[in-house]
TrEMBL record:
The keyword Transcription does not apply. NCBIfam families: GGDEF, sensory_box. Residues 806-1060 form the EAL domain. Residues 159-211, 581-635 form the PAC domain. Residues 418-451 are annotated as: Disordered. CDD domains: EAL, GGDEF, PAS. Residues 80-152, 208-258, 517-556 form the PAS domain. One of its GO terms (molecular function) is cyclic-guanylate-specific phosphodiesterase activity. Residues 664-797 form the GGDEF domain. The keyword Cell membrane does not apply. This is cyclic-guanylate-specific phosphodiesterase. InterPro entries: Biofilm_reg_signaling, EAL_dom, EAL_sf, GAF, GAF-like_dom_sf, GGDEF_dom, Nucleotide_cyclase, PAC. Its EC number is 3.1.4.52.
Amino acid sequence: MSLLPHQPLRNWRPPLMVGGTYLAFGLAWILLSDWFVHLMIPDRADVTVWQTGKGLAFVGLSTLLLLLVQARETARTRAADRYWRDVIDRSREGFWLIDAHGKTVTVNQAMADLLGYQPADLIGHNPAAFATPENQPRFEREIRHDLALEGEQTGSAPRRYEITLRTPSGEERPVLVQSSALYDDTGTLTGAYAFLTDLRDIRLRERELELTRHALETSFDEILRLDAEGTVQDANQTACDNLGYPREDLLGRTIADLNPDYSLADYQHALWPMVQTRGKVAVETGHRTREGREYPVEAGISHGVYRGEEFAYWVGRDISRRKAAEDAYQRSNQALRALSRSNSALVRARDEPTLLEEVCATLVQTRDYLRVWVGLPGDDAQATPDGPPANRLRVAASVGEEEGAPSPEGRRIAARAMTEETTRVRRASGAGEPPGNDGDPDGERPRSGGIAALPIHSTEATLGVLTVHTARSEAFDDEELALLEELAADLGFGIQALRVRDQRDQQLAELRLAGAVFENSAEGILITDPEQRIERVNPAFTAITGYPATEVMGRTPALLQSGLQDEAFYRAMWSAIRSQGHWQGKIWNRRRNGETYPEFLSISEVRDEAGQLAHYIASFADITQAHRAREELTYRTYHDPLTDLPNRDLFRERLQRALATETEGLALLFIDLKGFRALNDTVGAEAGDTVLRRIAGRLQEAVGHQDTVARVGGDEFWVLLHGADRGQQLDRWVAHLLALIGQPLELGEQTVRLEANMGVTLAPDDGTEMELLLTNAATALHRAQAESGGQVHYFRPEMQEAVRHRVQLEEALKVAIGNDELAVWFQPQVRLTDGTIDAMEALVRWHHPEWGMISPGEFIPVAEQTGQVVAIGDWVLEEALRQMSEWRDAGYQLPRLAVNVAAAQLQRPDWPERVEAALERWSIPPAALELEITEASLLASPNEARAALVRLKEMGVRQAIDDFGTGYSSLAYLKEFPVDTLKIDKAFVDGLPGAEHDHSITEAILAVAGALGQQVVAEGVETTKQADWLREHHVDWAQGFLYYRPMPATELMACLDPTRTT
């Protein structure tokens, strides 16, 4: 059977050649031979003999000529056949030739290799016999179809289909079959042939692409793909979760929507060119979530090109925990600075008030306290010795933000600390002293987060009390109280030393200082007698008010009143002055020229040695410029800079106020302009801004001043309508606003039209809480965007399903351990020198009975946020040790078992003891356990982590830094923590060996590990090239899909060597 394709026209070539040759030869023979015979034989009797000989010669020569022609054509056909056989035999694809009965005639070596047979083993068999059982019927049908095409050969194209074949060992081989019928020279169907392509590599590449996408989706890092305009083209799930957007809502947003540090202009004209030029850029910035919360991010931005299109790949990590650790470190430094500066104040201070003020100011400046004040035993009219304890104190020094006298709660706690000569603490959580005791009739809670009062002792007596107010709920731990008590003791020593100085010299120094301050102060100062008649003013008073000193002498400060404060204000002010001895605050006064201005005013009483009121001193500063700047800043803070509309914050504030004052008739509309992004790309950003301003103007003009229109970002607007009940009235409003948006817009010579999607919710029909209504409107808008053709969607309760899923996940996770839904899988770590399994990493998996397998990337963050990660981590440790004990009992001796540890576990004081108990319970030597901790977990609470890891190291437990290089990689903490192993993160291994950046980082990690005597494990090894590079650079172990995937313990048994011992 020839391998040449059937060509009907070429089949006529041999007969035509033979016939033509025979015709030419015959005509030539007849004509020339007759002429020659007549010429040579004149005798007619002899002609007949010659004619017979001539005939015999003709037959002989004709036969020879025909044989020569047929031999030439046969040689040509055989040469062509050998050529095609050689081509087929050299082909990497399998070739299969069958006869008209479906039996195999020949196959090439590639086909035999694919199936695992010798070519001779396949001859005579129907190809369907080598398919898997479930594929045999279909393969037989396809073969019969090819063999049923007789008479349809003209123009028939090869047929394509996929079939799964089976080797003698039972392995399956997916192949692509391209088959065609085969015909002989007469056009008769003689069989069929097919080329078969092995699809295993294609399937593997498809799987690798899926795994790569899965790795990106489950990465702890936020990964965004941005175009040159700063628009998000793609994002992984971590970015969606961290930013609070569904993927479909996040795509299409700009970097300016997500990052408060970068406007589109900053990105397009600064960051993007830098990324293009350098290839990679690292930044520390911040992200803003959908709800407006901002958090710090450390990001690497790299340049990418795909099919001519350029992108920026943004890989960022939430570094909130690292920042928190830095804040803790900063607070520790602040404590040391506070003590140092306070001690310096003790040395420098020339008088007691200065000392007290400096100590209070130092604490406020270095410790972020709201207010610090010192109370001394009462010796004035306001501190009556026969009154309640709180009234026996006078405020000797006070520094901080709160105005007026200390709160009754603060005075009460301070009085108890001084009376009982012991430290008293009132924390924000309610621990310590409950409100309402010790003569506090109002039972009020402290205005700040907490209060601590510490008695100030001298060698002879208790001198007073140091009182501290803070807004930090975690304040006043043992370390902080120890610092404050030490500072109070030093302060007592300083007060005692100052009091032995000559009082007259002190008074003289104070008078000189007061005079200098009075004359040279930039603040206006006036002094009055007890009847408030002005006795003296300084030059700054005249410069600020315009009144010369001679014009105000003997008059009262009432001449400066602007009339903008009512009588109640002044009554409260003088009440504070008389009760506390001073007052300070903002007030509006009037200059001599009639102009009103804001000032910051401080009024204090001055008493003589007998305690009688002698003077009032008032100092004030003109804060006009600061007030204007504050007003401008406030306006900008609450308004959109492009459209001058209220922004998201102001809208939320007005909505909250409306919900508090109105009980019905509120409608909340979320509007999204359809096609604006495409329009913006077409006409340009400047024209796009013009469109937004005009749309904003139309909406603002339509709703009027009572209602609110806000632009909250991009092409999204929010509208708050008052008095809009559900029904035709609201429908008319909605239609009217959509019609306004749809009106034509003239942009130069171009006219454009826009449409909008709208989500609508009403109060109180759909809820009365602000966050719920905002969520309802957003949900309705998303539904409107998703539905084809629908521009408006009103909220319905059933849309809350997505919100409920998170709650359901939290509740299901609470019972997952008890319901036996969690499982521990294991992934081997192999020794690179010989490929033997040297350790196992335990990994948690969750199979829900209804939802199926749930990704760790979905439930681990929930567990961390709800605190359930501690229980899950303890369970994983227990299960992993139990499994290792079973392996050991069965003769499988593993040198190490690696278990991941969460930051919350490290923070538990008893955690090392719990680990020790688990090891003893399962008879596992401590050296066989290796705990993997991320850098972020170490830095979340470094002191607790260090103490726990040192205790575990003393027990013999090994420790490894997981994902090394992706967090806060510091040689300082590598020295401080007893680390045995560094695990190179998969992000760096992926680029090996070709990526120079990953190459350099990995070599640096290996250098650090070598210098510190630590071993190295490479994570995520997937190719032999990566493994070869790591082996050449003396990496100890590798872990990844190249060797083993994570698997249950039952499947892992086949991989273990029962002869291996530790």
